[in-house]
Specification:
The chain is α+β, with helices and mostly antiparallel strands. Helices cover about 45% and strands about 35% of the residues. The chain has 5 helices and 6 strands, in the order αααββααββββ. The longest helix has 28 residues.
């Protein structure tokens, strides 16, 4: 009888260790909040590339915060507001030949605090009228459950 109790205790003990190990492994496999935020931010930028490459400037702007408080700083100075930023894109890239094919290179995504991240990278426009390349720093913020660019400095 003692042998049966010892055997049952051994089975129970190893089962608990196995369950505890499975719980630990499960938590390791779950993405962290930072990893999830980075993935969501990358997705926004991939969608922007696709919209731009279809010469859908309004679709491209869906990655930006639709607010008068949006800030864009580029070679023409500071632009405030979503509508004005869209108007500038329409003015400067009025044809598919001017907008070309966009690709982003993301060099860094870092958490600032809370639901605020900066993204540092490069943009590359391949165009028949001449390529255009530059760098950017953009700030993303999670607003109403969606990641949006609230500030963009591109040159």
């Amino acid at each position: 009888m003692k042998t049966i109790y010892k055997f049952l205790l051994l089975v129970l003990f190893t089962s608990c260790i196995s369950v505890k190990a499975d719980i630990r492994n499960e938590s390791i496999q779950q993405p962290t909040n930072i990893e999830a935020a980075e993935a969501a931010i990358r997705l926004v930028m991939e969608r922007q590339e696709m919209a731009w490459n279809n010469h859908d400037l309004k679709g491209f702007m869906q990655g930006y915060w639709k607010s008068d408080s949006l800030k864009f700083y580029g070679s023409n100075g500071l632009t405030k507001g979503w509508e004005q930023t869209l108007n500038n894109y329409k003015k400067n890239y009025s044809t598919k030949a001017e907008s070309g094919t966009l690709s982003f290179v993301i060099n860094d995504i870092s958490k600032i605090e809370g639901d605020n991240y900066w993204v540092m990278g490069e943009y590359h426009l391949k165009r028949d009228i001449g390529n255009a390349d530059g760098v950017f720093i953009i700030i993303f913020k999670k607003i109403n459950g969606e990641w949006k660019i609230v500030a963009d400095m591109s040159c």
